[in-house]
Write a structure and sequence with these properties.
Layout (H helix, E strand, L loop, with lengths): L1 H14 L7 H8 L7 E6 L4 E3 L7 E7 L1 E7 L5 E8 L2 E3 L1 H5 L8 E4 L3 E7 H10 L1 H27 L2 H13 L6 E3 L3 H8 L3 H13 L4 E3 L2 E4 L1 H14 L3
Antiparallel strand pairs: 1-8, 2-7, 3-6, 3-8, 4-5, 4-7, 9-11, 10-11
Helix pairs in contact: 4-5, 6-9
InterPro entries: cNMP-bd_dom, cNMP-bd_dom_sf, RmlC-like_jellyroll, WH-like_DNA-bd_sf, WH_DNA-bd_sf
Organism: Clostridium aciditolerans
Pfam families: cNMP_binding
């Protein structure tokens, strides 16, 4: 188990370092630790790797890429709880709370690199290795802070303003013009609104020349981006 703890510690240390921002470099580094206890794998965009209510057998580390967590209401409506990038650990909170099933469905939003570890091995490593435990405590603290701030932020502003923020974040650091091809159902679920309301907002943004359209795609030109940035700054009181 000591060899496993050493390997997991190196995997976690690397994942939380700046070096993990490169997909190919991360894959090359992590393959050294691939074993029957630590599995490394790539997933393409829009792939489910955790399903809600399935038995919690594994903990997943998202080393590189982006994913979102979805919950489903009793009437089948999907709610996007959060969109996460950077290093994330899925299944950890449920495992620490001794929950037997995953609480949400997790789906990739981009090409992603993941590490898959058996729940029992992961928990034993936390309980027996102070360095691993330290990383996990810091991660849980950061995740809790993010969740609280995201919840407060979303409820303190309107869905229309949340859409502006969504478009701003999707366009940030991208070459312009930028085409946003996100599924409209996904955007609506992320904003907790229905598609009819979303299209009404998009039409309003188009009429005000805040976005452009290319058939079903949203297009952000340089002029559009400047307007979005001004609105984003006013929302955040910058």
């Amino acid at each position: 188990m000591n060899n496993f703890n050493d390997s997991l510690k190196k995997v976690i240390e690397f994942s939380f370092s700046n070096k993990s921002s490169s997909h190919n470099a991360s894959k090359e580094f992590l393959k050294e630790f691939s074993s029957d206890k630590i599995q490394i794998f790539d997933l393409e965009e829009n792939k489910i790797f955790i399903e809600s209510n399935n038995k919690l057998d594994y903990i997943y580390i998202l080393v590189n890429g982006m994913a979102y967590i979805a919950y489903y209401t009793v009437d089948g409506r999907r709610i996007i709880a959060d969109t996460l990038n950077g290093v994330q650990i899925f299944g950890l909170i449920e495992a620490v709370n001794n929950t037997s099933c995953y609480s949400g469905t997790v789906i990739t939003l981009s090409k992603s690199l993941l590490v898959k570890v058996k729940k029992e091995y992961f928990l034993e490593a936390i309980y027996n290795d102070i360095h691993i435990a330290s990383y996990i405590i810091k991660y849980l603290a950061a995740f809790s802070t993010h969740s609280i701030k995201a919840s407060e932020y979303k409820t303190s502003i309107s869905p229309y303003e949340n859409l502006i923020i969504y478009l701003y974040n999707k366009t940030l650091k991208k070459n312009l013009p930028c085409k946003i091809k996100d599924n409209k159902t996904f955007i609506a679920d992320s904003l907790h609104i229905n598609k009819r309301t979303l299209y009404r907002y998009l039409n309003r943004l188009t009429d005000d020349d805040i976005i452009s359209r290319d058939r079903q795609d949203i297009v952000i030109t340089e002029n559009n981006y400047k307007k979005i940035q001004r609105i984003f700054n006013s929302i955040n009181n910058i």
